[in-house]
Amino acid sequence: MDALPVAKSFIIGKIFNAKWVLERTKRDHALRVNVERISQQSDRLTQRLPEIHQCNSMGALRGLEGMAAKEYFYAFDDLILKSKDDFFFEERTRRPPLDRMNALLSFIYSVLTNDCCAALQGVGLDPYVGFMHVDRPGRASLALDLVEEFRPVIADRFALTLVNTGVIQAKDFEERENGGVFLSETGRKAVLGAWQRKKTEQIVHPYLQERISWGLVPYVQALLLTRFLRGDIDAYPPFMWK
């Protein structure tokens, strides 16, 4: 099977949802954010979508995804509305995260990837054999593929809500000798408790047009991926939140 069309679907979903996050913040908080910058970055994401459709190699797709991620994160600091001295975003840092916002994102991405891994196993797919991410021993490549479309609309919005509502504060983090910043044990417990509550919230799935909980979204998408791989549907429909 040609992996490129499936990988494209994952990234189209990711970029579409990233644009939605920017547009939703602009709509809801127009008086508190840099509308011009958010609009500019949203427009750039829109321009990436036809480029994704037209690209003809996995290397080109990874390059376009990387550029789109930078364009999205360029406006991310504008989405942080509270405690700006404690929570700010300049660029994505990992291994280790170098500030509180990156630490929070990394932790939530890890939790969401684990949920995707469980969802894939639940429908009989091997989470370690991916389409876009290169297979490595011990690396859940397919879970990393699937999580891409969920990062903006589930993980990023959840992280922003925790900060903007004061559920997570500066005291919930600790800095280590290597300069890395991580959630404390108390912080991790607070995030996981809020995560379990988030997963019970009901939505209407944009493709199925049926009510499900946020927590079931990875499982439903894994089911749709299975249906595509069996030939029951012509293409994999990414989760595109509206």
From TrEMBL:
Pfam families: Cas_Cas1
Origin superkingdom: Bacteria
Signal sequence, start to end: none
A single MF term (Gene Ontology): endonuclease activity
Keyword Acyltransferase listed: no
Keywords of the record: Antiviral defense, DNA-binding, Endonuclease, Hydrolase, Magnesium, Manganese, Metal-binding, Nuclease
Record's subunit section: Homodimer, forms a heterotetramer with a Cas2 homodimer.
UniProt name for this protein: CRISPR-associated protein Cas1
NCBIfam families in alphabetical order: cas1
Species for this entry: Bifidobacterium moukalabense DSM 27321
InterPro entries: Cas1, CRISPR-assoc_Cas1, CRISPR-assoc_Cas1_C
Record bears the keyword Hydrolase: yes
GO BP annotations, alphabetical order: defense response to virus; maintenance of CRISPR repeat elements
